[in-house]
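Hi all, posting the design record for the shared folder.

TITLE: backbone redesign
STEP: 1 of 1
STRUCTURE INPUT:
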């Protein structure tokens, strides 16, 4: 017997679904965590088990378990229902099953895209933790000093009357440092390394999406691979290494033999169009990512100086919204707000790729 969407929602605990994507900690009746939809310095993403809803007090995202899956998986309403049905092993709600396509889409999205996107989100979360390491240390120190201060004042056996032995002034200073972010200017190297890590994680995710999508199409829909006519020169040794079965390794061979790299946006857009027919319109997300990719190279190879290569790479990025005034030989220094913007741009760009590839699989039927 089929059930309605509302009945399906009532069969799950929203916190259990959200925990698959977000590290949650219980705070009273609710759960709290770092929002997966935008960069934030401290957790403001709240899940209410009693109301069966989530809400981020930072970016304003809110809703029930279905809208959460729609946003986190970059899918439409019908597909989110399908995902939730699979998670709880329940029948699909009636009236909506006819809007879903064959199981091939579910297999591709759940088994291929979803693990890659979850891993990317996890890596982005680690960058957020790195940027906020000082806040974690300050919170720990403040808590321990507050406990020490309380123990000293409540100690009945040893009476301390000299205020110089109380940690009160140190507590005040630490709280002021936390509130005013007094040391933030000293963390420039750390923030720049966050950009290096962020671009590396994005490149790794794009590589995995390309390889796994190519393998999926090679196994199931060979005629739909746009670049099927690509010429590859393989040695007998290479063929023997994969037991003369190229299906599982064809994506790796293409990346290696055609020298495909996703470390620059031009190559990324070109290869996804060549092999999968996925096209993109130039926008601020792409231009900001190009800026971050160029900055990554300069940070790693040019002591974070805007050299000629950097300037040439970014001169066509007229739509970018970060570092619009940077000049030759300027020092490249990222702020938390700029990193946050790049994080959101990368999430939107990878999400767009995922949506377009799902549409490709969906069109195959």
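Okay, here is what came back for every position:
SEQUENCE:
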């Amino acid at each position: 017997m089929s059930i309605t969407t509302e009945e399906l929602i009532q069969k799950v605990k929203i916190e259990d679904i959200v925990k698959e994507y977000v590290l949650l900690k219980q705070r009273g009746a609710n759960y709290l965590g770092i929002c997966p939809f935008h960069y934030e310095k401290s957790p403001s993403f709240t899940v209410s088990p009693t109301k069966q809803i989530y809400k981020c007090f930072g970016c304003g995202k809110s809703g029930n378990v279905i809208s959460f899956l729609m946003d986190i998986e970059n899918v439409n309403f019908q597909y989110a229902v399908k995902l939730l049905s699979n998670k709880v092993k329940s029948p699909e709600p009636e009236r909506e099953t006819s809007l879903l396509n064959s199981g091939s889409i579910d297999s591709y999205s759940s088994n291929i895209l979803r693990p890659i996107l979850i891993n990317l989100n996890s890596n982005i979360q680690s960058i957020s933790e790195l940027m906020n390491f000082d806040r974690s240390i300050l919170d720990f120190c403040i808590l321990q000093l507050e406990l020490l201060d309380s123990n000293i004042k409540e100690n009945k056996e040893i009476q301390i009357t000299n205020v110089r032995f109380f940690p009160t002034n140190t507590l005040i200073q630490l709280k002021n440092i936390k509130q005013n972010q007094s040391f933030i200017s000293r963390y420039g190297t750390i923030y720049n390394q966050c950009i290096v890590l962020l671009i590396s994680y994005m490149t790794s995710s794009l590589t995995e999406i390309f390889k796994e999508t190519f393998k999926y199409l090679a196994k199931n829909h060979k005629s739909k691979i746009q670049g099927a006519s690509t010429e590859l020169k393989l040695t007998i040794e290479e063929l023997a290494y994969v037991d003369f079965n190229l299906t599982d390794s064809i994506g790796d061979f293409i990346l290696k033999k055609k020298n495909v790299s996703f470390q620059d946006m031009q190559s990324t857009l070109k290869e996804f169009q060549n092999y999968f027919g996925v096209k993109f319109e130039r926008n601020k997300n792409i231009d900001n990512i190009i800026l971050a990719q160029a900055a990554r190279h300069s940070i790693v190879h040019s002591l974070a100086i805007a050299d000629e290569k950097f300037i040439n790479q970014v001169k066509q990025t007229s739509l970018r919204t970060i570092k619009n005034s940077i000049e030759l030989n300027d020092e490249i220094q990222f702020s938390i707000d700029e990193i946050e913007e790049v994080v959101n741009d990368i999430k939107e760009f990878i999400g767009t790729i995922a949506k377009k590839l799902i549409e490709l699989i969906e069109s195959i039927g």
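COMMENT: The chain has a mean pLDDT of 83.
Let me know if anyone wants the other runs.
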